[in-house]
Automatic annotation (TrEMBL):
Protein name: DUF4772 domain-containing protein
UniProt GO MF annotations: DNA binding; zinc ion binding
Compartments where located: Nucleus
Keyword match Signal: no
Keywords assigned by UniProt, alphabetized: DNA-binding, Metal-binding, Nucleus, Transcription, Transcription regulation, Zinc, Zinc-finger
GO cellular component: nucleus
Amino acid sequence: MSTGKRLAKRSIIGTRVCAPGEDGKYYSGVIQAVKTPANFAENNNCINLTPNTRYTVRFDSRQGNLGRTTCEFFEGNLIGPGFQSVLGLELVKGQKVFVTYNGREVSGEVCKHHSETDEVIIKIQPSGIED
């Protein structure tokens, strides 16, 4: 049974990424669509990606009400495979993070990020209590 729509072998659609919310915090989501500019003169690669390519991200619903379910972003705004890494970003107070503590992954909340020393102070949630 075929739907007539086939994703390319290396399609970025469905990739899990983090994107900034209006409050400056990063939220997880999935790339839902890729939009390239109509001007092909600036497209000089075989997959037609340019600096002006926009990615539609569908935010995960379990993060509460962000005021929107989808939004478009440029490549430089996304964190994830094929995009930028978390290195070099400044996390904001209240940002939810996951860290390894005593050999287990636990969630926490950023209290302060000292970007000059790249140290992040977080408050770890008590065991068994997740947001």
